[in-house]
Amino acid sequence: MLKEDIQAAVDRGELLPLMEEFYTIQGEGFHTGTAAYFIRVGGCDVGCHWCDVKESWNAELHPPTAIDAIAGNAARFSKTVVVTGGEPLMWDMAPLTSLLRAQGMKVHIETSGAYPLTGYWDWICLSPKKTKLPVGDIYGHAHELKVIIHNRHDFVFAEEQAAKVNSNAVLFLQPEWSKREQVTPLIVDYVMNNPKWRVSLQTHKYLNIP
Fold first, then answer.
1. Known binding site for S-adenosyl-L-methionine: residues?
2. Residues flagged as binding site for substrate
3. Can you tell me which residues bind [4Fe-4S] cluster (predicted)?
4. Directed axis angle between helix 67-75 and helix 94-102, to 10°?
5. What is the pLDDT of residues 94-105, one digit of tens each?
6. FRET pair for 43, CA 20 to 30 Å: which of 86, 131, 161, 188?
7. Are residues 197 and 190 in contact, defined by beta-carbon separation less than 8 angstroms?
C-alpha cells in the first residue's frame, strides 16, 4: 500500500497506529478488578509531564494496523474492550467501535476529551487534563470523571470539571503514581469531606500486571 493510501485509511479510521493490545484486569476507576482487553492507540499531544506511557505520544512510532485485525484479536479474549492511549480521539473511532460492538463486545474508552468525541461507546471515562481541556459535548456523555491528583491545586481543578459533567457521571480522584505517598492521604481526607467523590487507585501497578 502506498504511503498516501495508508494515510487515507488512517484518516478514515480503517487503520490505527496500534501501540499495544493485551488482556488484563482493569486497574482504575469504576470497573476496577474486572477483566478487559486493552487496545492502546498511539498519538497524543496533551503533554502530561507525569505520563507513564510517553512512548505512546509519537503516532509515527506505531504501525498503522487494520481494525479488522484489532477487533478479531479482542474477540478472542474478552467481552469488554477498553480503548486507551495516547489519546484515542485523535483518530476516528467510529469504524473500530462499530466492528467491536457488532461482535457483541462492550466498548469502553479512556480519554482526556481533548478531541471531538467519535465512536459508539458503552462507557466513557473522561480524564481531563489542564494542559488541553475537553472539547465539544463529551461532558454530557461521560459515565465517569477521573481526575488525577498531583498537587493540592488539582482538587480545585477537579471541582471545576465535576461542575461540567452530567449528573449521572461517577466522580473519581486518583493519585498520580509518583506522588502517591504524598497525595493519597489528601485524597482520603477530601473524599471523606466531599463524599460525592470516590477514590481510584492504579491497582494494576500494585498487582504488577499491565
1. 50-52, 86, 127-129
2. 25-27, 40, 84, 210
3. 44, 48, 51
4. 30
5. 999 999 999 999
6. 161
7. yes
